[in-house]
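Predict the holo structure. Ligand: NAP.
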Amino acid sequence: MKTYHLRDGVGLNQLFQVEAPEPAPGPGQVLIQMKAWSLNYRDLLVMGGKYSNRLPNPLVPLSDGVGEIADCNGDVHGLKKGQRVACLFFPDWHEGNLTGEKTKRALGANDQGVLAERVVANASAVIPVPEHLSHEEAACLPCAGLTAWNALFHSHSQVQSKTVLIMGSGGVSLFGLQFAKSAGWKVAAVSRREESLDRMKTMGLDYGVCSRKTPSWGEAIRSWSQGGVDQVLELGGGATLPQSLRAVRVGGEISLIGILGGADQEFNPLPVIMKGLALRGIFVGSKDMFQQMNTAISGQGIKPVIDRVFPFSEVKEALAFLEKGNHFGKICIAH
Ligand SMILES: NC(=O)c1ccc[n+]([C@@H]2O[C@H](COP(=O)([O-])OP(=O)(O)OC[C@H]3O[C@@H](n4cnc5c(N)ncnc54)[C@H](OP(=O)(O)O)[C@@H]3O)[C@@H](O)[C@H]2O)c1
């Protein structure tokens, strides 16, 4: 079967399509005939050597993919042949709070990923996906979708209604917009592109600020929300945190999710103290959270936003397209 290997180091030029032996499911495992995958910014970090220094060599990249069960071996938790499933980003985080043990294995980094025609997984480490979604749409859920879900619905403040700030127009951000609007919340966004803000407004965005035109966008959002938003989905890292700290209200929450602007900036903790903020690091989510998210997605008929779908033979082109950072929503691979 065809798969991709990241070999002997890092960089897109180290990524090769190769022929690999057919995998066979052991006891309690399923064989999945993969149909579609989605890319995450994290895949660029992995391939750029910025994510983990414990990568297997060779590494099969990507955490996110969807396929149909082609074979089952023994007790497979009620799953059956032909069923459509996604693999869990963390195969061992099924419920409860995150622990070192539960997050030790992560697909497409320190554990082999899913960018192969066929994949074997423990039956407990896969989850059926909502039926109304296409293969590509369903492939967007395991990392980007679940991260936004965890941030919004497992936050410290379990309130009925809130105002949320999202950042950029990539995968996590647009899931954040869709989930927050489906809960009836108000959403503000900061984006480098006016046209992306216009598109988000057609999806229900209440207020948008273009960071290129308004570099001190935190103040604009603070003023629009009359004292600050309740929660920020912080995707930029140190580069955007100072503005997020202005945009959030006293007693609000910042969900630390991404490092789009880099990971090496200094950060002044004083506003966190003086505003009594909750900072919560988000690391994707558990199988339980995934199940809750699926129920909401099915119930509300939510469909992930996909910018472009590339064929399996053009994974490198798809990653290069992601790297440019001009997409709106998710970038997928189909087979
Ligand atoms: N902690 C976790 O569990 C977790 C899970 C998923 C993702 N993440 C992280 O969250 C971040 C977003 O991930 P994603 O997969 O949604 O990314 P993505 O789909 O690649 O989206 C990136 C978007 O952010 C904006 N952007 C790009 N470069 C930027 C920069 N230098 N500064 C500010 N904004 C920039 C762009 O939107 P505009 O052009 O509209 O500004 C772009 O479309 C990444 O850092 C990723 O590693 C973390």
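The CA atoms of residues 37 and 65 lie 4 Å apart. The two ends are 13 Å apart (CA to CA).
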